[in-house]
Amino acid sequence: MANTKYVFVTGGVSSSLGKGIIAASLAKLLQARGYRVTIQKFDPYINVDPGTLNPYEHGECYVTDDGAETDLDLGHYERFLNTPTSQANNVTTGRIYQSVIEKERRGEFLGKTVQVVPHITNEIKERIKILGKTGNYDIVITEIGGTVGDIESLPYIEAVRQLKWELGDTNALVIHLTLIPFLSAAGELKTKPTQHSVKTLMESGIKADILVCRTEHELSEDLRRKLALFCNVKQEAVIESIDASTIYDVPNLMLEEGLDKVVLQRLVLRDDDEPNLDKWNSFLQRHKNPTCEITVGLIGKYVELQDSYKSILEAFIHAGAANEVKVTIESIHSEHLEDQTISQKIAHLDGVLVAPGFGERGIAGKIKAVQYAREHKIPFFGICLGMQMAVIEFARNVLNLPEACSVEVDDKTAFPVISLMEEQKTVTDMGGTMRLGAWDCKLVPGSKVAEAYGVEEISERHRHRYEYNNEYKEALENAGLQTTGMNPKTGLVEIIEIADHPWFVGVQYHPEYKSTVANPHPLFVAFVKAAVQQSTKKVNTKVS
Ligand code: GLN
């Protein structure tokens, strides 16, 4: 631990300023200089994890290899750094309290009164240091969710204050992310909210070392000087974070502003070499210079909130760059897909992706979308619930079992082609009890997926309770729905395909969680490639 340095990221003025992206961008720059870096996030809500939350609350629930259901910021960390995160990288207030209360029940506090200070704050400090203690990291960046001044953030701020004092100035620092609003009536950028939020932090005993200022307009030298003087930081520690057209520009913007240098100097770490961002920049080059454009329909029921499908949208950016294609996503609400509108909503698409989801709402529209894509030979990608919908659609319309269903939707169905997994039948707690995290899968040689992955054994992340019912496997296969990926130990079906179709693949797992800038996911890359072919075919048919 002595050698690990700690960087804390707090937020002020407003939420949604992009602390996660700033943390990930700083980590990227430090990694590109050869440092071993990880990022963790503390969320001040009482849910033990976000697994039971509706996506409308905080967006998608991200899943790690070790089966943790986490905040979507961990997705950004992995996509930027290309290193896996784990349960230790995301902790909520609920988890902190749960663990303190369990210790109290075991009598570990030896008769003491258990209090927020020191027991809750000690638990927070332990969980901050846990990653440093592994010896795997030179720098641990800890993002504190919420905004300073919030009642629920107080124990975290106090824990940071104590740690900063214990570790000493050269081992820990605080970056405060704030907003510099632009008042158009006055034509001016305003520093006052930042001054107030830095003061709020001071009231809790923490002096911000670096200010990262979100702004729509460039910060002048005068304004930087004013911020430095009134917020008590060095002028080079006032970092402008101007709105960017893509989050993937932010590491370069932070490099220009010298954020990594200020951090390294303050932590007395080597800062002479320049970060090597060659691979990152070649991705950006491809992302920004596409040779053609395709349109993919994303069929889901949480489409009003883009963050609900964050990892899928980002995986398309990676796969688009790999193919040098601009992928335009058309979000289509599955509840709005009716027989009369389906053709108008789907016919023009180059690819159809049916998204993951839970419950009955919007199911009918998803099945219609699958049928349209299957019958009109539009490349199709079904993820988790999307794969289950593809099995139901095939059973209903090809096997002629019109009542075929998932027991999640109809637990009395006579044809449960998607059924509850055996080990789920006795589950009563909803939190953390799905089939979660990384599981192995063996691919059938010669299949589209084996071709896309280029290997025959893979490991992918899961988050579901229901599964393909093997009792229908033979009938479905004989009718043309191939099973091309299986769990080698349990025989659970992981992947379905249709051979007589340009690209029709459904996966029970979530490939989107493993797509990164450095490693675009092979199935997204293959799906985008198939969609490009579909788009070329459409153009050729129009011309001839
Ligand atoms: N609701 C389905 C299940 O639990 C699918 C879950 C998902 O799409 N992540 O099996």
Helix content: 25-40%
Number of strands: 23
Average pLDDT: 95
The kinds of small molecule bound in this structure are: glutamine
Radius of gyration: 25 Å
Which stretches of 5+ consecutive residues score pLDDT under 50? none
Strand content: 15-25%
Structural class label: alpha/beta
Distance between the termini: 68 Å
In DSSP terms (H or I, runs of 4 or more residues), the helix count works out at 18
User: How would you sum up the major sheet?
Assistant: 9 strands, mixed
Indicate the overall shape: globular
In order across it, which strands form the biggest sheet? 13-12-14-15-23-22-21-18-19
Could you characterize the architecture of this molecule?
The chain is of the alpha/beta class and 544 residues long. It is built from 18 helices and 23 strands. It has a 9-stranded mixed sheet with strand order 13-12-14-15-23-22-21-18-19, sandwiched between helices. Helix 14 (363-375) links the parallel strand 14 (351-354) and strand 15 (380-383). The longest helix has 22 residues, at 522-543. It is globular, with a radius of gyration of 25 Å. Glutamine is lined by residues 356-358, 384-385, 408, 463-466. Glutamine binds next to strand 19.
Summarize this entry quickly.
The chain is 37% helix and 22% strand. It is of the alpha/beta class and 544 residues long.
Secondary structure blueprint with pairings:
Elements: E1 5-11, H1 19-31, E2 37-43, H2 55-58, E3 62-63, E4 69-70, H3 73-81, E5 90-92, H4 93-105, H5 116-133, E6 139-144, H6 154-167, E7 172-179, E8 182-183, E9 188-189, H7 192-203, E10 210-215, H8 221-231, E11 238-242, H9 250-257, H10 259-266, H11 278-288, E12 292-300, H12 310-323, E13 325-333, H13 342-346, E14 351-354, H14 363-375, E15 380-383, H15 385-397, E16 405-406, E17 416-420, E18 435-443, H16 448-453, E19 457-464, E20 466-468, H17 473-478, E21 481-486, E22 493-498, E23 504-507, H18 522-543
Parallel strand pairs: 1-6, 1-7, 2-5, 2-6, 7-10, 10-11, 12-13, 12-14, 14-15, 15-23, 16-17
Antiparallel strand pairs: 3-4, 8-9, 17-20, 18-19, 18-21, 21-22, 22-23
Glutamine is lined by residues 356-358, 384-385, 408, 463-466.
